[in-house]
Amino acid sequence: MRDKPVITVQLIHIQGPLKGQIQEVAEDSILIGRHPTCHVQFPKDLSIVSRRHAQIVRNGNRFKLIDESTNGTFVNGKQVKETYLKDGDVLMFSEGGPKASFLTRILENQPAVQPESPVVPVPPVKAAKPAQEPVAPPVQEPPQQPVVTPQAAAPPLPQAAAVAIQKVQKSLIVQYGPTLNSYRELPVTIGSSPGNDLVLSHPAILDRHVQIFFSNNQYWIKDLTGKNLVSINSMPIGLQAALNANDILALSPQGPRFTFLGQGRLAEIEEPVSQQAQPVPDTPQDTPRQEGERKSKGIGALYKDIFKK
Questions:
Q1: What is the CA radius of gyration of the chain?
Q2: Mean pLDDT within 86-113
């Protein structure tokens, strides 16, 4: 009988006090609420979330959401009492409350590898040497020095340009801000212009910025900017590179940045809020001239901030 596969549930928090966190739970029953025993625990003072708000229960290879709250649980904006979840669903705990996107990851149990029987070395049988003829010692030849050629060195990493890009039926899920974008066919082109599969509104994203595709049993990303802007784990990828689980993907030095969760799932990394956005308090001692100079500087800083964006 085939073993039951291990399925982990990932909740990517996109709104609320846990925003930006990614929680992964491999239990058959996942409790969500404010109680300390909950697997997904919200702050005690978040009163709109019940102490035991909801639970996600595994049924075979599917997961059912069961609402146990006072203020309700919503899936994709619709209030539910019980419903089966699918990858990409957005859960909201109370109206206007915390939001999290639901994803699953299947880890097939590998069959146990039977250890090989130890090989017991058999001592060689020594042949009797003839008494009348001594055995001459073998002629020792001088050891040959290996000829080191450039081809004998460790082969370099395969050039990204050699990886073919073809249409394949493979899923891709991208969480950016409060939205979850799901695709069933690759490649997927990302950029700021409307002609892309995924349009990102970010000041550092060019018209056609990157392309994500699948080849050789791996997800890959291709830099379409021609400016070497894309990096993985702070290392520029050049033309294109493979994505591995837990890689940090930056589409430009100014962001946006994503965590590659494996199996075609990208989750945005929330960037810290700029300190320049803090307002400068007025001082009652300002003279009219000082006030005019301060306002002028404030307008200049505002325009600089707008152009940066």
A1: 30
A2: 80
